[in-house]
Structure formats: structure tokens, C-alpha cells
Amino acid sequence: MGGVNYGALMRGAAPELIVLATALVVLLADLAGLRGVSLRVRWLLTGLMSWAGCGVAAVVLLHGTTGFQAATGPLGFAVDGLAVWVKGVVLLLSALTVGLSMASARTRHVGEYLALILLGTVGLMVLAGAGDLLMVFLALELSSLVLYVLTGFDKERGEAGEAALKYFLVGSVAAAFTLYGMSLLYGVTGTTRLEGMAQGVGGAPMGVTLWAGLVLVVAGLAFKVAAAPFHLWAPDAYQAAPTPSAALIASGSKVAAFAVLVRVLMTGLPQGAGSAGWGAWVPGWSVLLAVLSVVSLVWGNLAALVQSNVRRLLAYSAVAHAGYGLLGLVAQDRAGVAALMYFAATYALSAVGAFGVVSVVEAQRGGQARLADFAGLSRRAPGVALCLMVFLLSLAGIPPLAGFFGKFYLFVAALGSGGSLGLLWLVILAVALSTVSLYYYLLVLKEAWVRSPLSEGDEAGWEIPWQVRVTLWVAALGVVLLGMFPSPVLRSLESALAGSGL
């Protein structure tokens, strides 16, 4: 480890250290000083501490990490443009998740729950800047272990424990695949550093061992983004987990996983990309991702059509969105990666907001939110119904919301890949299935805006905690602003990627 500037290392990892310290402070404050006060005050004070920690970490991230990448040497942990962008998004999503937790996480273990959310945030932030296979694996496991616990945190519900166990078992298999694949890549290239892997492969053709390692690593990372057929954990986890837990799994986990997938494939194994263009098939990871994209698009959208439980509907929507996102990697260029990260951020904001609305409905109705439970939402809580419309129409890709531009830039990047229209077949399929998704989103909006309340005279307004209102309006405003100003965001992303060597 000689040659590492540990002062620079501490400065570059300062955002993660701040969030980690915040988790410990929240846990200690709740255990030592707040057990004698009411549950509502405990949630408020610890939530405000968590917000403050995320805010300070964001400020340090934007202003205190310059020049860190070159100073870390063999550690494989960098704060380049892509890492800063992804970490900023993760911090925002974590803060929104904390806002939902303050009002909708029905547990007395306040400090433990918020500390787990913050520790998961640390894992996702480390994952965003990992430039070494070992660092990638450690960050994956740190974030995954936290998410397993958050999924089954509500011990009073048997289905939560069952979903957490299923998530853990499938995740353990995915971790084993990933680690074995990484060992194969190391055996062939002689290094775990992503830049060194690309040099180790050189211009030589990819052998069987390298192919096996690549397939196993892609399979493990596909589990994290919930791409079919590695999505089997997602519907149960989204349905049974506490609402804030499901929101973090659907949003922050997907953004960070897409970022590390970009690094591993485009930095570590650019020579193995191949081509998925129609009539010009060349074996490579782009073909593998194209297959995963097709399966995710078809299965996610068709399965969502028959769901009456809104959480499961959002889970299959997440599977479909993983398929859309993979288009950016299949394009194999900087424009595609920029479109992918923009799309991931817009999806994540919409997903957090959608789960926030689900938490409101479940708090009023009790039990799991089904389609019928949204009936008359516009009369009981018009502001919440308006936010729901923004989130779902963005997920459906309706202009001028951010989700439309996210998909649009992905399709443009895919069509412009290689200067030909070889990926036109994949774009046509994605557009067709995007119209299918509009149908099941409109089913929810129909209940909220057209249907009358379930019982006569049940039109009284709902009292919604201010934390949830703030979370919903911040997420909705983010979706609208990203839709109004997509070009500056895309340009900043492309500049960040250029500084990252992508």
C-alpha cells in the first residue's frame, strides 16, 4: 500500500465518513438520550440529525474532494466526475428516504432504523467510486447486507421476514457468482484494478475463462439492478419491506448499481463489448445486456399489467426500467452512459415519490395498498394526488416530465450507436412496451382522479405529516425541473464522464 497519500484518502472519503459518523451519532443519541421522550419526538430529532448529516456530506462532496483520484494509488477508490454525480444523487435519495421514515416507518427502534439507512447510503456511495474489483465487492456486500435487514425490519409481519430471507438467499447466490467471476477476471488479467484489466486483456481475443468471468459478474450486477431473470427477489421485497426501505431499494440501489456496471464494463473490459446491432452480431457483453434488456422489458411490463397490489406493480415497473436503462450501456459510448445516469436519477426520484404516496394511502387505509385503496385520493388529498400524477406519468415517459427525456435520450443514444441503426430493433421494442406501461400507470391514476371514495360521505381530507409532504413535493419538483432543463444536466454529465475517462 506504499505510495498512498492517506491525507488525501481521508479528504476524498470525507462524505462517506460524515454519513458514517451521522449514523453512529443518531444511534447513540436515540439509545442514550431519547428513550424517555415520545416516539414522535424521537423520529423528529433523529430524522433532523440524519438530514443534517446528509446535507453536510453533500456540501463536502461538492467542494472538498477535488484532486483525490490521483492520490489514492492502489486503493481503487476515486472521486471522479461520475462518482461525485452519483454520490450526490444517492445522498438526495437517502434524505428523501429519511423523510418518509420519520412519518411512515412503524417501529419503535428509531435509531437502529435510521442508522441502517445511513449505513446503506455509505455502501452505495463507496460503490459509486469503486475502481477495483475488491472494492466493488466489499461495497456491494455492505449495501446488500443493510438492505436485507431493512427489508425484514418489521418483525411483526411474517411476510417481511420471508421476503428478507428470499432476498438474502438470492443475493448470496448472486454474490457468489460475482466473486467467482471476479476471481476468473483476475486470473486472466493479473489485476483487480479496472484500468489494469483493460491493459491486461490488450488486443488479444477473449478466451473462455474471460468470457465465463464476464458472464458471472454481469449476472451478479444484474441482480442489483433487478434485471430479469435476476429479479425474483424484487416483488416480494418491495411488497413486504417497510415503505422507506422499499423506496431506498428501488432508487439508491439501482442508481449505484448502474454506475458500477458502467465502470466494470466500459473501463475494465471495453474490448469485450461486441455488437448487438441487427444483422451485425459480434459476441460481447453488449449482446448479453441486449438480451437482459429484452427479457426485462417484456416480463416487467407484462407482469405489471395483472397486479392489483401497487407495491408489486412498482416492483415490476422497476424490472422494466432496468431494461430501459441497459440500452445506454448497449450503445457503448459516452452519450449512452450519460443518458443512462440521467435516466436512473429521474427514475429514482419518481420511485421514491411513488412509494411516498403508497405510504400515505397505507397509513390511512391500513394494510397493503391495492388499486381500489387509491379511489378518491384527489378529493381527500389533492396535493398528494397531484404528486402521484407527476411520478407515474414520468415513469410512463410522458412529456414534458423528466421520465420522457430519460427514455428519449436513451433511445437517441442507442440509435446513434456506431453511426448506424443497428439497435433500431431494440428501440422499437422499448417504445412499444413503454406504451404498454402507460396502461397500468393510468389504472392507478384512474382510481385516484376518476373513481369516487369507497364509501359514501368518505371525502374528508386526510391529515398528512409535514415530513411526507416535504418529501413528496421535493421529489415532484425534482422530476419537473429535470424535465424542464434536461440539456444542462446531460452536458454536465458528459463533462463528468469525460473527466472520468469514460
From TrEMBL:
EC numbers on record: 7.1.1.-
A Gene Ontology molecular function term of the record: NADH dehydrogenase (ubiquinone) activity
PANTHER family tied to this protein: NADH DEHYDROGENASE (PTHR22773)
Source lineage: Bacteria, Pseudomonadati, Verrucomicrobiota, Verrucomicrobiia, Limisphaerales
Uppermost EC category: translocase
Domain of life (superkingdom): Bacteria
GO cellular component: endomembrane system; plasma membrane
Family from the record: Belongs to the complex I subunit 2 family.
Keyword Transit peptide recorded: no
UniProt keywords, alphabetically: Cell membrane, Membrane, NAD, Quinone, Translocase, Transmembrane, Transmembrane helix, Transport, Ubiquinone
Subunit-structure text: NDH-1 is composed of 14 different subunits. Subunits NuoA, H, J, K, L, M, N constitute the membrane sector of the complex.
GO biological process: ATP synthesis coupled electron transport
Function recorded in the entry: NDH-1 shuttles electrons from NADH, via FMN and iron-sulfur (Fe-S) centers, to quinones in the respiratory chain. The immediate electron acceptor for the enzyme in this species is believed to be ubiquinone. Couples the redox reaction to proton translocation (for every two electrons transferred, four hydrogen ions are translocated across the cytoplasmic membrane), and thus conserves the redox energy in a proton gradient.
Compartmental location: Cell membrane; Endomembrane system; Membrane
Reaction(s) this enzyme catalyzes, per UniProt: a quinone + NADH + 5 H(+)(in) = a quinol + NAD(+) + 4 H(+)(out)
Name the UniProt record assigns to this protein: NADH-quinone oxidoreductase subunit N
TM ranges: 12-31, 43-62, 82-103, 110-128, 134-153, 165-188, 208-234, 246-265, 285-306, 313-331, 337-361, 381-402, 422-445, 466-485
InterPro entries: NADH-Q_OxRdtase_suN/2, ND/Mrp_TM
Pfam families assigned to the protein according to its UniProt record, in alphabetical order: Proton_antipo_M
Positions of the NADH:quinone oxidoreductase/Mrp antiporter transmembrane domain: 130-428
Membrane topology: Multi-pass membrane protein
